[in-house]
Specification:
By secondary structure, the chain is α+β, with helices and mostly antiparallel strands. The chain has 2 helices and 7 strands.
Length: 148
Amino acid sequence: MRRFLPLPRLDRLPTAPQPVEGVFRYHGEIVPVLRLGVLLDLAEGGGGGESGLYAPLILITWQGRPTALLVDQVHGDVALPAEDRVASDPSLSFNGCAAGAFPDRVTGRAGTVTLLDPDRLLSEAEGRLLDAFRAAEERRLARWDGAA
């Protein structure tokens, strides 16, 4: 995770795959915004409806490029000592994206919080499609920049 961001104005494109909410520019780079709930096939918060004004983004580095995950809410950011991390069985999550877990000390609820490996949130085929989508969006915006 690089940082949390407020939801900026997103450019939405009709050719975008369902998990892609839109794109925005961040420090001169095109950043695709992926709905985490859609990626994880969650019933709540992943339906693809309109995002609220205060919906946060988690800016991550995926395959060396910035990518943002649109989530319903963020409860906090904690430093996690290695001894608090519990290993997860990679065969129990899509593409082994659940990298571990730790006790929930932020929300006051009992249970654990799952750690996700950003590099494993997309399959190899989905990653290629996202790269192609990002490249197409960069070309499209470059045409507009040249007209200014």
